[in-house]
Design goal:
By secondary structure, the chain is of the alpha+beta class. The chain is built from 8 helices and 18 strands.
Length: 306
Amino acid sequence: MSWREALPAVRGRLLKDEPLSPFTWFRVGGAADLLFLPADAEDLADFLRGLDPAVPVTVLGVGSNVIIRDGGIEGVVVRLAGKAFGQVTTEGLRVTAGAAALDAMVARAAAKAGIAGLEFYAGIPGSIGGALTMNAGCYGAETKDLLVSATGIDRSGARRDFTLSDFGYTYRHSQAPADIIWIEAVYQGQADDPAAITARIDEITARRETTQPIREKTGGSTFKNPPGHSAWKLVDEAGWRGKPHGGAMFSPLHSNFMINTGEATAADLEGLGEAVRADVALKLGVSLDWEIKRIGRAGKGLGGGG
């Protein structure tokens, strides 16, 4: 009997061979062997406790910072969504946000409550789970600057609590255990006038709309900024701004954002990124590291990337 025929009972939804491209901003990628949409944290914990520990588990948020390869994802893909995982509440100067809450929504909720500091989240196209995982940040601020604690569920189904120091955050990196599925985070900001906070959020949103290709099939920043460099400048200097590569290109508007120009495959996007990395290293002597996650199996006859 295969593992898919011996699944734990759930209150959420279990979908076999479910296409994942609709769940990503790039709109590319293959299917999940099994997609699990848990009803709530308890449903998720019960499922993980009953799942064969040999089965791989991958978490998918809002799909803004990921390329799912054309061969799909082995094992179980967990996607958190809905009110059970997306609530945002405030008390005093603290904001508690579910892992599925959009970063921008958290920024707005904090502003309404007169809590400053989370405005930068309005410029990040993702959800809180992803922000915790990668120390998301922009415009001079990062998740680590305001995070107090977070709660997650590990692969065995156990609930785990973490404080800021447990994350060991560095630039776009966390040392928290990789098997944790985040369900909630707590932040603390500073008191300020709600109108002033909202004005700063509006400024960030306007800046993003004029400098990033947010109306395209795109993701977040493709590459991390190397020490002493801006990734977009390196891509630009190497001549890749607006240069087609299959159905993909780096945006003419912002050269650290890849876009699916129409019918790109995941292999087109990943291949473009690798070509740019090689060219920047050759021409400019600088190593670019991916910020976008590439996950899953390569399609038939395609290389898997690194």
